[in-house]
Amino acid sequence: MKIRLYSLILLMFCFFKTYSIENYKEFEDSYVQINAKNLKDDFFMVKFDSETENVYIGLNTFFYFLELYTLDINLKEKKVYGNINKKNIKVYFDDEESFVMDGELYVNIKVLEKKLLFKESFFDYSALKLNVEPNFILPYEERERAKVERLRLDTRKVEDEKKIDFEIPRKLATPGLFKIDYSKSNVEESEYQIKYEYSSQLLYGELYLSGEIKPEHKIDYGNLTYSDIIEDNDLVVGNFSLIAPSFFGVDTKVLGVSFENKDTYMTRDSGITIIKGQAKNAETIELYRNSFLVDYIKPYSENFEFRIDDGVFNSDYTLKIYYENGEIEERKVYSLSDSDLLKKGKSRFTFQGGKGDETHENQYIGRAFYGVTDNLTLGLGGMNLNSISGNQYKILESDVLLRTGNKNFPMIINYKNYYDYKSKENSYELSVDQKLFSYNLKFIENSFSETIAEQSEIKKYNSISLGKSFNRNFFEIGVERILKTEEKFGEDKEENIYGLWDSSVFNPVYTSLKIEKNINGSREDVGFKPSLSYSNGSVSILLEADISKDDGKRRYDQEYFLRINHKKENIFKEILFADVGAEIKYSNETKKFTYGLSFNIELDDIIYMKLPSTTTFDEDKNRKTQTGLEVSKIIDLSNPKRKIKKNISLNSSWIHGKVFLDKNGNGVYDEGETPLENVKVMVDNKHFYSDKNGEYVAEGFYSNEVVVLDIDRKTLDPMLKNSRDSLKIKTRRSSGAKIDIPVEVVSLVMGNIWQTEDFSEKEFIRSISMTTILLEKDGKVVKTIDPEFDGMFFFEDVTPGEYIIKFEYIGEENIGFSQNMIPVNVTLENPEEGGYFEGIDTKLIRNQENISEKKDKGSEITDDIFNF
User: Fold this and answer.
1) CA 356 to CA 65: how far, in whole Å?
2) Which of 605, 604, 587 is nearest to 595 (CA)?
3) How far out from the chain centre does Cα 627 lie?
4) Angstrom distance (rounded) from CA 736 to CA 734
5) For the chain, which end, N or C, has fewer CB atoms within 10 Å of the first or last residue's CB respectively?
6) Mind listing the pLDDT tens digit for each residue in 388-410?
7) pLDDT, tens digit, for every residue of 71-85?
8) What is the enclosing helix (H) or strand (E) of 795?
């Protein structure tokens, strides 16, 4: 009986092991982004089996993408043979891992690691990305190595990534920018406000002040900031936001000194996610969870806060901030409970201290972290805090961040302990993140002291959740337990189990569903929260529902919410703008709608004016309309005549100058040279145009980051280019810089490498792929290019002068050219017009003494990668 059973198992194993792919004609054609080291193709076609979620790649196309011209394919035998980096390759693919269709051999990407010298191949379903990591040197890397060797001999070599062409210097004092603002919340009432803002450089730092003139004179907010004074930490003297765990309940607006680097952070208090940060002059801020839009706000000040009570624990959050001047910023939200994992020997110190704005009590926080090893970070800190409710905390904080496990099963353990040596009480936060292949397991536990529990009404909280991204979907299941304080709830213990599904299958429309059930004792509460979101940069739509049934009820309570926000859009010549928003709510208890409409009109020219209008309708259809008015003007005190046409942040920087045709090539605007009008000047993702005098002003950059200044060549004559190419400029808050942009005349130099009888067509293409062409001037390489597969080459943007074109073969065979060096004299008949220089030709040849006889491949049926 056992022998029969073993035979049956063996037979079944053999059956499942040797099945062939029969339904491959039903596989979907999917276009994905493929990445192999520095090679990338955004529209690479693969075959996708939706039932098994296997991905199949066509080897002809794949080898062409990698430039592997030394491999051949035999379709009949499903065989790949040839060599890679002098290693002979001869592999066969089985029927269960490959199929032939339309003259192409498709193989499962999982076999690349086993049979074709690849370290790893991974397909990300949610992002439609295919990443492959070869275990060999690609042809483009060989070319790059040759280029690097030449650059090492060139004394002019500069590390471009570290190079900064111009830095706005820190100064003792500058006149700065001043903004006056008049506003009325309701034009039908007499009350109004007059506010002001001022920013400048002072004592080599950045000064910012804001206050009120009417109805009373006061300074609301002010500080002196030294940005990135030590690595990415800012030193702030004045007003700042205290970064402390929210369960302490302290006043976070503090006047004092701060040395910290977080501008956006997140805390989780018993299932509620709190996200705080600062963003000056933000028009709209959107919050995304796993690419799903979950909320958006229109902040009324530079400080903003989101409170997400969705009970989701295993997800990452990002912010998309739309500024009033059109700039868009994306921020990753960092958890306050997470310490930075430091490398061995690295350290970090933070300090914040001062008086609270509301309590007028002292608030102090200090922390130090040290990387003991590459996988272990220890931290120690102290806090002296006073809560709004009157509690005083003297806390000794200790931190442990530990990373364990291998590549497939990494684990991060984060433990924070808070010991109150005044009351002799202890609290702690523990989080454990475990990676299980493509699954994420997360455990959270918070335990609070009696003093904190009395204030926050939570004694203990823990949760465990499991999440996974799956073919543009994200699934998460979890269980949470909340022990509430005895004074108010007795021994009330709340336990919930939930499941979450986020989907981007219908991108840019995202769908989500959360199902939650209370499992505490005899209670049978259950809730459903479906939602749908859409965002395309100008319109955001959120449709949500809350469907729940409490224990003992026969029917479900239902509430539906619809929020629509159309962001600010240009109506007339980037001067007149408008945005509109709507909110609608429906409840099945009242069977009535409540809704509101908002509409803003903005005039953003020499003077900024805004007319916000809001109309609301309650359940009885009673209407309430309120229209406000805001008028403001920004003045550059260093140049009051300068027209600031945008409602920029006063903490921003600006760049101005002239775009001109540099006829003598000295890079300086001289009398008689031609200013260029309507040239698009680009600074990162923003653009500005030069006027009839060639003058441009690029403004509204919010941080002390390095920006790239360039011009859009589409707005120039094709034979003109920026003489300096792009410039990397380190900006400085509340400061400007004058940078002229010279434009020069350029020409096009073209030629061909011709095939000779020494080479077959395939051998010629293979040899051309290992050829580099150099353009030299005065003995120095000024440009390096690779020829096209047919041998054609061209050098663009060549300025007048005498050059030498050199042809180099970087392979190991003895292959050369009929002319290795060709002189070219680029001269212009008209100094304001470029020219075309053609006929720079040579031939690819093989030295006769090293020509080897070609191997006779017999009658073997092959299908090489070009189907010749």
Assistant:
1) 61
2) 587
3) 38
4) 7
5) N
6) 888 889 999 999 988 887 666 78
7) 888 888 889 888 887
8) strand 792-798
